Amino acid sequence: MKAFHQEVVRVVLLDSQLRYITKVEISKGTANASFAWPREIFRPAITHSSFGFALVHNQPSGCVSPSDADLRLTKRIASGARILQIKFLDHVIVGQAIADRPGYFSFQEAGLL
User: Fold this and answer.
1) Which one of 5, 28, 57, 105 has the largest count of C-beta atoms within 10 Å of its C-beta?
2) Per the domain annotation, does 83 fall within a domain?
3) Structure confidence by residue, pLDDT tens digits, 67-77
4) Is the residue at 72 inside a domain?
5) Which residues contact 56 (CB under 8 A, 6 or more apart)?
6) What are 104-112's contacts with CB under 8 Å, separation 24+?
7) What residues form DSSP beta bridges with 92?
8) How many domains does the chain have?
9) Assigned domain for 2 exists
10) For 8-71, what is the HEC assignment?
């Protein structure tokens, strides 16, 4: 996803053993933005009866720092997942590795999920 020229949001669906079921593209945006609505993220999770999911999107600029919009979306998705009793495992931003920084940002690793 780091080579994409526009921002793409995907959801990766997992079974109860945290094994991969499928990935679903939620939205494709511009070079610096993409809109993802919670209903579009939860629809495939419900349709595939997944136990859990991870949200993944790229940053064509390479910067993996989460924006305010990323933080707000993550909070809304976490809240909805609790209500639906679907495990929201992580939100990962994919970009470019720079010096000693990895080419991704994990909300779970950062303690934001």
Assistant:
1) 57
2) yes
3) 998 999 999 99
4) yes
5) 1, 9, 10, 11, 12, 23, 91, 92, 93, 94
6) 104/64, 105/64, 105/65, 105/66, 107/66, 107/74, 112/66, 112/71, 112/74
7) 56, 106
8) 1
9) no
10) EEEEEEECCCCCEEEEEEEEECCCCCCCCCHHHHHHHHHHCCCCEEEEEEECCCCCCCCCHHHH
